[in-house]
Amino acid sequence: MRLKTITALGAVVALSTVLFVGQSARSQGSGSSRANPPQQPRRPQTVEEFAADFWRFLTRPSLEFTTWKTTKAAAPPEGKDPHGASPKAYVNSVFANSLATPPFGSIVVREDAASDPSMRSSVSVMYRVQGTDPKNFDWYWLRFQPDGSLAKGEDGKPLAGRVTSCIECHQRAQGGDLVFSNDPSPLPATE
After folding, report:
1. Among residues 132, 128, 125, 137, which one has the least CA distance to residue 171?
2. Residue 123 — very low, low, confident or very high, per pLDDT cuts 50/70/90?
3. Which one, of 80, 77, 54, lies nearest residue 65 by Cα?
4. Which pLDDT score, from 0 to 100, does residue 52 have?
5. What is the DSSP letter of 67?
6. How far, CA to CA in Å, does 146 sit from each of 50, 98, 156, 157?
7. How many angstroms separate the Cα of 24 from the Cα of each of 28, 37, 38, 43?
């Protein structure tokens, strides 16, 4: 009798366990949905976070922007060049392969120089990203301090995104693409 009671009790415990585990699994969904729980939506990067990631991209060891192809940096017509006396602009391979019409993904980097052209005062970047600013050829503007931190304007706002002073100056470019090095015709990239 005792053996029957233990066996019956064991069956009840086993059945309870199966029912409990089965009910728990059903409430959580199928096995495949439990394997990859739903992820919380990612919050968009702040301007400063994007700029920090972009600076790390520009300064990757052995792939730093200073190893990219260069083109002669043309000065804006009728006015002082805010980039100083830096004679060249660095372009990524996306832009170098299509200087006449910069495709999305194009990057132009210019080391800005103060009165001494050998000293970098800042680094200015144009990055063409679809949907960024269709009215202004979709350029995303960035200006970095020499140490890679994001520069700020006189109003204390970061110089990133739709930078009015950059756009107003570059709208004078003759090619309609806001890039002076394309005026009046594309300049060849050099090694």
Report:
1. 137
2. very high
3. 54
4. 96
5. G
6. 17, 29, 18, 18
7. 6, 15, 18, 31
